[in-house]
Amino acid sequence: MEKRQELYAGKAKSVHATDDPDRLVLTFRDDTSAFDGERMESLARKGMVNNRFNAFIMETLQAAGIPTHFDRRLSDTESLVKKLEMIPVECVVRNIAAGGLVKRLGAEEGQALDPPTFELFLKNDALHDPMINESLAETFGWATPEQLAEMKALTFRVNGVLKELFAEGGLLLVDYKLEFGLFQGKIVLGDEFSPDGCRLWDARTREKLDKDRFRQGLGGVIEAYEEVGRRIGISFD
Fold first, then answer.
1. pLDDT digit string (tens) for 143-175?
2. Contacting residues for 154 by C-beta, under 8 A, at least 6 apart
3. Is residue 168 within a helix (H) or strand (E), and if so which, with residue range?
4. Contact 2, 19 (CB under 8 A)
5. pLDDT tens, 46-70?
6. CB 52 within 8 Å of CB 73
7. DSSP string spanning 183-236?
8. What is the reported pTM?
9. What is the pLDDT of residue 35?
10. Topology annotation, domain 85-220
11. Which residue from 72, 45, 80 is spatially nearest to 225, judged by alpha carbons?
12. How far is CA 156 from CA 133, 159, 170, in A?
């Protein structure tokens, strides 16, 4: 597989073309951002940690029958993925109140949400990823009703698999976001799943072990990511 020109560079990842038109190289960098890129920092080992974390999660989801764009890990910081036609809608599930939900609704942080909530956000940095609904997504052509229904169903299937996985490691899956795309006409999970895009708390102490450590200046960001990984069986050595 030959890595070719860079197609896109986001806040923490880069995407390169390959000699296969249906495959891309996804590179996890050490860059970390918060507040729509207002705060940026480089954290040693982060690219490696998130790449291995994502590979483990994607393989776990694939084993559970959930289609993903992940093919294989190429190196410490690179993975081979399918080239998707991305749908610009983020799916968010919340099992416990935290973050934006607390700010918007005045809910108490840590409140269990039963049933879990499901929200949609437009992936648009310039607009700060505004919250949307199915009607808006259909009207503006971001996704069809059938695509949205499949994305929602897959998002909740992911919730079932990962809540159990993290619970076995003494962790609470508080919330997370997923992105999807089309591969050969079928909805497939894309982007990544790492502590950058979810909230994970220690089940006993409620210690935050995710990107909130960076957002809130708590320190020990990568150490927390590695702790989560080790608890669910990931090796970073």
1. 999 999 999 999 999 999 999 999 999 999 999
2. 66, 67, 178, 180, 187, 189
3. helix 145-168
4. yes
5. 999 999 999 999 999 999 999 999 9
6. yes
7. ETTEEEE-S--STTSEEEEETTT--B-STHHHHTT---HHHHHHHHHHHTT---
8. 0.96
9. 79
10. D-amino Acid Aminotransferase; Chain A, domain 1 (3.30.470)
11. 45
12. 17, 5, 21
**Does the pLDDT at position 182 exceed 80?**
yes
78: left (phi over 0), alpha (psi -120 to 50) or beta: beta
**53 burial type by CB count under 10 A (0-12 exposed, 13-18 middle, 19+ buried):** buried
Superfamily of domain 3-82: Phosphorylase Kinase; domain 1 (3.30.200.20)
Compute the distance between CA of residue 39 and CA of residue 74 in angstroms, rounded to an integer: 30
d(CA 51, CA 143): 28
**Cα(140)–Cα(8) distance, integer angstroms:** 24
Residue 212, pLDDT score = 96
Is 73 within 8 Å of 79 (Cβ atoms)? Answer: yes
Structure tokens at 150: 């499949």
Name the band, by pLDDT with cuts 50, 70 and 90, for residue 39: confident
Q: What is the mean pLDDT of the chain?
A: 96
Q: Report the percent of the chain where pLDDT is more than 90.
A: 95
Domain ranges of the chain: 3-82, 85-220
* End-to-end Cα spacing for the chain: 26
